[in-house]
UniProtKB/TrEMBL annotation:
SMART domains: PBPb (SM00062). This is Taurine ABC transporter substrate-binding protein. Gene3D superfamilies: Periplasmic binding protein-like II. The keyword Magnesium does not apply. It comes from the Bacteria. Keywords: Signal. SUPFAM superfamilies: Periplasmic binding protein-like II (SSF53850).
Amino acid sequence: MRRSHFLSLIALALSGWGTVPVLAQDGAVRVAYQTVVEPAKVAQADGLYEKATGKRIDWRKFESGAEVITAVASGDVQVGYVGSSPLAAAASRELPIETFFIAAEIGSAEALVVRNGSGIAKAQDLAGKRVAVPFVSTTHYSLLAALKHWGVDAKQVNIINLRPTEIAAAWQRGDIDAAYVWDPALGQIKAGGKVLTSSVEVARWGAPTFDAWIVRKDFAQKNPDFVTAFARITGEAYAGYRKDPNAFTARTENLDKIARVTGAKKEDVPALLAGSGFPTLAEQARLLNAPTVQAVSDTAAFLKAQGKVDAVLADYKAYVTARYVVDAAKGAVVATKAP
């Protein structure tokens, strides 16, 4: 894996910075989402974000955080869903963004799967093998952290940059020996392999990962009510799921909607939801202070040590804000019954 390749992805993301962000001609807000399975996909399918914000939203699907950062930097989208690794890389390059909501604390929803018959029985067997991962993603960070933990030199592993859909296709063709990815690609490759590790273990080894919603600072300054309403709807969706996960997943319509938005198999949705933690609004304010700032700082330091970013900042507070979740909590609807 070439350091210059990693850095070029971030440089590409930042190359468009300075473009004045504009809404679509019809006033729509452009939001970049990914196919991660999480409770708020139901709210997305139901149009609750549009109702709460009073804006038309142009939902744009992306396959990786690196692509989302590029779109946010260029002004093509105003709000985006990214993992902690691309977030740390972008913040280290001082991209004017704010993290305003922790979307998921990643666990078994992301995993390293090795192909049956690949000859990989243990971590040390990864040397010389073809391992696919989306570069500048949480799984990329987790893979590097796992290799470091195992004492496997990443330079001895043939790490290949592929999008999730490309990973699934490459797996089907037999072009790769292993992959660290999320669903729906994860579920597809599990059928022909075994999990070597997941982000649950990697977190225990000192490298936790999370997903977050970010917003361009200039957009947020002009549209604080939109960001607050967006956070409120997401938080209410999470509270509904957390109140009774079994009741939430027992509703066929919830599974149908999440599957339709993400492309995951409906029958896999309950397990995928259980594979991550979804902080409620009451928990967000605490997380979006010292814990998240420290997590971004630690991630950036690891990326620098691995030669994936040139420098780290002295402080990452400017890239995390609890303002919107605090305001959202004041107007949140308290769930009175199971969803």
